[in-house]
Amino acid sequence: MNTVRDLKLLVVTVGGTIDKVYFDASSEYEVGDPMVPHVFQGTHVSLDYSVLPLMRKDSLEMTGEDRQMIRETCEQADESCILITHGTDTMADTAEYLMGIEGKTIVLTGALAPARFRETDAIYNLGCATGAVQSLPPGVYVTMNGRVFPAGQVRKNRAAQCFEWVEKH
């Protein structure tokens, strides 16, 4: 496991609400440039990190090929700590797809409101994910709403606008 002193973090951005830019009152949007560098600079993050903008997709548009590209990116990365920003609608599916990658701690997070908005959960979620990726053992996790969930044991509750545990059978 990396120590905080020598941690090199890879942030992979794949799109989702966290990076969305809205254009008008009818909620027309597009996924914009990654917001992670702005959030990290604005909150004085002092980790050694790099940002890899892999794609700009709403998670409802994610395909199996997209998930395979994310998996291969994680497998081939030199870094053992990887934070992925992702749309919340299918984040749990992608987390499950990444299970079994050896020797890496992978944390997925997103936001219910764009990071560009004044009132957003994006900054808090990125902070939780950054702490989680440094302290958890290798595996795949989802961090949302102040909680950390192992891949395969989480789902989005759209009605409650939060993530919740799924009982493993």
TrEMBL record:
It holds the Pfam family Asparaginase. The active site is at T17 (o-isoaspartyl threonine intermediate). Substrate binds at S59, T88, D89. InterPro entries: Asp/glu_Ase-like_sf (IPR036152), Asparaginase/glutaminase-like (IPR006034), L-asparaginase_N (IPR027474), L-asparaginase_N_sf (IPR037152). Residues 8-160 form the L-asparaginase N-terminal domain. GO terms for molecular function: asparaginase activity. It comes from the Bacteria. This is Asparaginase. It comes from Oceaniferula marina.
